[in-house]
Design goal:
Distance between the termini of chain B: 52 Å
Mean pLDDT of chain A: 94
Structural class of chain A: mainly alpha
Number of helices of chain B: 3
CATH superfamily of the largest domain in chain A: Nitrile hydratase alpha /Thiocyanate hydrolase gamma
Strand content of chain B: 25-35%
Helix content of chain B: 10-25%
Structural class of chain B: alpha+beta
CATH topology of chain B: SH3 type barrels
CATH class of the largest domain in chain A: Alpha Beta
CATH class of chain B: Mainly Beta
Strand order of the largest sheet of chain A: 1-4
Order of helices and strands of chain A: HHHHHEEHHHHEEHH
Mean pLDDT of chain B: 94
Order of helices and strands of chain B: HEEHEHEE
Shape of chain A: globular
Number of domains of chain B: 1
Number of strands of chain B: 5
Largest interface: A-B, 40 and 42 residues
CATH architecture of the largest domain in chain A: Alpha-Beta Complex
Oligomer: heterodimer
Shape of chain B: elongated
Strand content of chain A: 5-15%
Number of helices of chain A: 11
Chain lengths: 198, 116
């Protein structure tokens, strides 16, 4: 078989996006180079690796962790992560007592500078409607079973504040460097639907 | 005139997107206050989720002063007011379907709440 990537028919959404894009270009409303620059930035330069660096720093530096939990925006800016959808950051810490998980039931609010663009499931109606009423059921579908004694806190981002979860540092990682720790941290753990494992 | 690539990247790197306002507005609530959300059902934009109308919660933190989206989204006043982080017990919101120990934490503008 020749590569099918070029021959498969476009989906309805792809056709609609292409039609919109050509109209916007024809009318002189957008410059394709600007669209490409933004896509390149959020596909290749901004993403959850930024958030992972923040988490790893907090795990190795207690003073940084304290600043991160009390003044999230400023502490994240110390590592150079600022910009659109990260203007007002609050970081919430997962512990054996409290497990935090994030959602935006109204749309898809998400902290771009630290986590990049949201995954499709985060924007989907089933996740947004179910995680607020049955968080434990949704977490189980992500493979996370929490003890009854743990309080589940669901953060619904209704305002301009953007949230990020500081996951628990997995046991047995005392010998790892900050870089090695950052490599363990996943996007889903910073949304709060999974834990970080070593 | 369409914006250029350089302008688009500069905009995405700026912090100009915040609707936080550096103005002095008296807060109606403080951390620890018990509140009841209003049962408002506007035809236009609101950030008060349908599932949280007429619910009792406790203010956990004052997040500062922000633009009020319900008016501003329709080209009206900024109506600057405080936004709070408010905790609701899942049991109070969902009844027996709510988790015994679980909590919903939701940002609430002054205009969404009354003292409870």
């Amino acid at each position: 078989m020749a590569s099918s990537a070029h021959t498969r028919p476009l989906s309805e959404v792809e056709i609609r996006v292409k039609a919109l894009e050509s109209l916007l270009v024809e009318k002189g409303l957008i410059d394709l180079a600007a669209v490409d620059a933004l896509i390149d930035k959020y596909e290749h330069k901004v993403g959850p690796r930024n958030g992972a660096r923040v988490v790893a720093r907090a795990w190795v530096d207690p003073a940084y962790k304290a600043r991160l939990l009390s003044h999230g925006t400023e502490a994240i800016a110390e590592l150079g992560y600022t910009g659109m959808q990260g203007e007002d950051m609050v970081v919430v810490e997962n512990t054996p007592e409290v497990h935090n998980v994030l959602v935006c039931t109204l749309c898809s609010c998400y902290p771009w500078p630290t986590l990049g663009l949201p995954p499709v499931w985060y924007k989907s109606a089933p996740y947004r409607s179910r995680v607020v009423i049955d968080p434990r059921g949704v977490l189980q579908e992500f493979g996370l079973q929490l003890p009854e004694s743990t309080e589940v806190r669901v953060w619904d981002s209704t305002s301009e504040v953007r949230y990020m979860v500081l996951p628990e540092r997995p046991p047995g990682t005392e010998h790892l460097s900050e870089d090695e720790l950052a490599a363990l941290v996943t996007r889903d753990a910073m949304i709060g639907v999974t834990k970080v494992s070593a | 005139m369409a914006i250029t690539a350089a302008q688009a990247l500069a905009a995405s790197a700026s912090d100009g997107g915040s609707t936080r306002l550096e103005v002095d507005v008296a807060p109606r609530f403080a951390a620890g206050d018990r509140i009841r959300t209003r049962n408002i059902n506007p035809r236009g934009h609101t950030r008060l989720p349908l599932y949280l109308r007429n619910c009792v919660g406790v203010v956990a933190a004052d997040l500062g002063v922000f633009v009020f989206p319900d008016t501003h989204a329709h080209g009206g006043d900024q109506k600057p007011q405080h936004v709070y982080s408010v905790h609701f017990s899942a049991k109070d919101v969902w009844g027996r379907e709510g988790g015994e120990r679980d909590t919903l934490v939701v940002d609430m503008w002054d205009d969404y709440m009354d003292p409870a």
